[in-house]
Amino acid sequence: MAKYILGVSAFYHDSAACLVRDGEIVAASQEERFSRVKGDSGFPAEAARFCLEAAGIRAKDLDAVVFYDKPIRKFDRILSSYIHTAPRGLRSFLQALPIWLKHKLWTEDAIRKELHYDGEVLFTEHHQAHAASAFYPSPFPDAAILTVDGAGEWTTTLIAKGRGNELRMIKKLEFPHSLGLLYSAFTYYCGFRVNSGEYKLMGLAPYGRPIYLDLIEKELVRVSEDGSFTLNERYFDYITGMRMVNRRFEKLFGQPALSPDEKPAQFHMDIAASVQEFTSRLMVLLAREARKATGLDRLCMAGGVALNCVSNSRILRESGFRDVWVQPASGDAGGAIGAALFEWYARLGNSRSADGIHDCQKASLLGLSVDGETAKKDLDRLGANYRQLADEELFSRTASDIANGKVVAWVQGKGEFGPRALGNRSILGDPRSDEMQSRMNLKIKFRESFRPFAPAILEEKTREWFEWDRPSSYMLFVADLDKSKRNTVPAEGKTGLELLHLRRSVVPAITHVDFSARLQTVSAVSNPRFYALIREFDRQTGCPLLINTSFNVRGEPIVNSAADAYACFMATGIDVLVADNYYLVKEDQPEFQGMEKWKKTLIRD
User: Which residues contact 118 (CB under 8 A, 6 or more apart)?
Assistant: First the structure.
């Protein structure tokens, strides 16, 4: 009889659930996709129900529910930190204590109540779950493991070794010394929201120069040759206060923290470049230490910092590993996968096989499915006007629309697990367009103009267009555009966002100011429908790549259902929506009754 294990992450940010059947990942989703609250931290009741329904089982059929964290140990860290720094931080402590006493310390009770479940409830350590999520779905039979985030219970950085079904923890660093919190402190300092704005800081960095790197290394962080580090607590306020940085930090860099409604200046671009360079260098040191400590030449990574694709690429080039695999849901959501797989392999001792090439993440297409039946039901309920097209006509018409400058929303099959849209909940555009980056950022995504877009390219055409020699299925590495595709850019005298207006390549909409791009390679095996669309675009234009960005707007989660997709389509400047084989044009749609209510959500960030 099959054994079912449900992994759960909750109560901090990006709650999620994952169901594993005999070691196979059956389904996984973040709660935000159902609740429509970005980064939802509540108990993932809807995500868990979806997982159970996907397998055709009920909670009583589960063999175990495994939580990705040990709440009592985390509370011990929080309480110890406040006692250590008392009387500072009293306000923050008084705000946090009721939440812990009412909810977070009673996680087992919440699991039983929300799921109507009376079976076994187990717990992993936070970084055990991260390490398990990195190694067990990976293609490697053995590997070094590096997990880096803000903080778990106490651990912020972990080096481990995976072999077969075993995980062995080797070295760790503990709170308050945290690279994730350091990066978040600079995210806050540059006016972006912690736990969601780190991507913005990474995207801002290429517009600046790392002129504050020496100051960071001299005053903020002491780094050893093995990558271990200590933060100078005098400059930070995340232990005791309501802000990430304090006045000493602001005085050190000469300016107060930027307000969220202010636009970043050249100063903030230089700050971003400096902390990004520091982060990349430190991650390379940590990876080298992981290689030395394990004696292995393949690396698996997870934790929030593993979503920094710039640092990931530096690790691949500079750390000595011959291959690196990063968990697509490296943040807390991925802890649900790790918790379930840790129980199956590490605790229960079940055997694991890996061929060194193919991972077990199923292209991270693990969420709610939009098929012909569900799409039609949602679209009919909303009064949408559509045409149902056969595949050949659908791909041809959609590729032609994109080639003619239209923005297309593309919803197919199972939703992605993790923060990236990988071709099933995507907004697509023509990378050859000079105006497309600005148009999509400002009028469709409602976000900052400097944010770069990623290319999705036919896997077999990658080397013709990028300086890259391997698959990059999950958009977790950056690659430089091949020199043959670049333009000579007269950038003299131009700085900051002025660089946005230079035509840097034959595909300017996906080429960042440093000629890099966050690369997604698409194969016919992993995503045949998305592959077929890009191949048709290549046939029509000679360009084997598309802009691929997540189907959402600023402050909203990625769309989940066809109904979510239609609402977002109608409230933005998207020209065409394709849901399964249903083709919708904006001009053909009736007035959307839910428009004003939905638009109000766009102000959230």
Answer: 60, 112
Q: Write down the H helix ranges in 4-122.
A: 32-35, 45-55, 71-85, 90-102, 107-115
Q: What distance in Å separates the CA atoms of residue 598 and residue 207, rounded to the nearest whole number? A: 34
Asked if residue 171 belongs to a domain, the reply is: no
The token duo for 171 is: 């070295």
Residue among 30, 33, 34 nearest 13 (CA)? 30
pLDDT digits (tens, 9 = 90+) for 556-567: 999 999 999 999
Among 450, 316, 368, CA closest to 49: 368
Q: For residue 282, which phi and psi values (nearest 5 degrees)?
A: -70, -40
Give the separation between CA 371 and CA 579, rounded to whole angstroms: 8
Residues 97 and 184 in one domain: no
The SS3 assignment for 141 reads: coil
Rounded Cα distance between 255 and 245, Å, is: 12
Task: Judge whether 337 lies within some domain.
Answer: yes
Does residue 549 contact residue 427 with C-beta atoms inside 8 Å? Answer: yes
pLDDT tens track for 246-299: 999 999 999 999 998 899 999 999 999 999 999 999 999 999 999 999 999 999
Q: Are residues 201 and 271 in the same domain?
A: yes
The three-state secondary structure class of 502 is coil
Name residue, tokens 């990658």: 462
8 A C-beta contact, residue 548 and residue 554: no
Read out DSSP for 249-276?
HHHHHTSPPPPTTSPP-HHHHHHHHHHH
**What number is the average pLDDT over the span 438-443?**
84
385/411 same-domain check: yes
What pLDDT was estimated at residue 75?
Answer: 66
User: Which strands sit side by side in the sheet containing 454-458, from one edge to the other?
Assistant: 387-388, 582-585, 576-579, 408-411, 425-429, 545-550, 454-458, 516-522, 477-480
Report pTM.
0.94
Any domain includes 145:
no
The total number of structural domains in the chain stands at 3
User: What are the angstrom distances between the C-alpha of 40 and each of 316, 355, 551?
Assistant: 32, 36, 18
Average pLDDT, the chain: 92
Q: Where are the alpha helices (DSSP H) in 151-235?
A: 179-189, 198-204, 213-215
User: Above pLDDT 70, what percent of the chain?
Assistant: 91
For 119, other C-beta atoms within 10 Å of its C-beta total 15
Terminal-to-terminal C-alpha distance of the chain: 46
Asked whether the beta carbons of 138 and 25 are under 8 A apart, the reply is no
**Cβ-based neighbours of 313, under 8 Å, separated by 6 or more:** 477, 478, 479
Domain holding 342, by residue range, is 4-136+330-363
DSSP tag of 558: P
Give the domain CATH number at 458: 3.90.870.20
Contact 427, 569 (CB under 8 A): no
Contacts of 188 (CB under 8 A, 6+ apart): 194, 197, 243, 244, 245, 257
